[in-house]
Design brief:
four-stranded mixed sheet, 2 helices, globular
């Protein structure tokens, strides 16, 4: 049996989330992603939400044919426990890093994040790397924000 690695595609990254309402608002309203698909299992007590950016090449495709999605996994009941938190891999021992989002204007994007009360891990004016920002989602996962000049009008 053989397989063709030239046909392999990156499909998604999965984050466990505590509160789907807060996380969906963050990724759709603040970062502009679209909810591509969702699956709910009341029996197994979990919900899956798949988000991504509009891509004409992916229009009309099933979720498994899309690339670069973010899967948010919610285990039912965690939203009712204020002390519940997932390990994001960014604590004292490190581990997991972040996802990255490109924007058309880093300064304007950061001002918009401020308007929404988004928590900054690193602002562009902090530290040596002044061309990037890091924000945190409602569960504390880090999102790197990069300006892409090709996106500017």
């Amino acid at each position: 049996m053989t397989t063709n690695v030239a046909k392999y595609r990156y499909n998604h990254t999965m984050y466990r989330i505590r509160d789907p309402k807060a996380s969906l608002k963050f990724y759709t309203e603040i970062l502009g992603m679209k909810l591509v698909d969702e699956h709910h299992s009341d029996e197994a007590k979990f919900s899956l939400y798949f988000l991504g950016y509009e891509d004409p090449a992916s229009e009309g495709l099933v979720r498994l044919a899309c690339q670069g999605l973010l899967e948010l996994t919610h285990n039912h009941g965690t939203e009712n426990d204020a002390s519940f938190a997932y390990n994001t891999g960014n604590g004292d021992q490190g581990g997991y890093g972040h996802i990255a989002i490109t924007v058309d204007d880093l300064t304007a994007a950061c001002a918009r994040f401020d308007e929404f009360g988004v928590k900054f891990v690193k602002r562009p004016e902090e530290g040596r790397m002044r061309h990037i920002a890091f924000i945190a989602d409602p569960d504390g996962y880090r999102v790197e924000i990069l300006e892409n000049p090709m996106l500017q009008a």
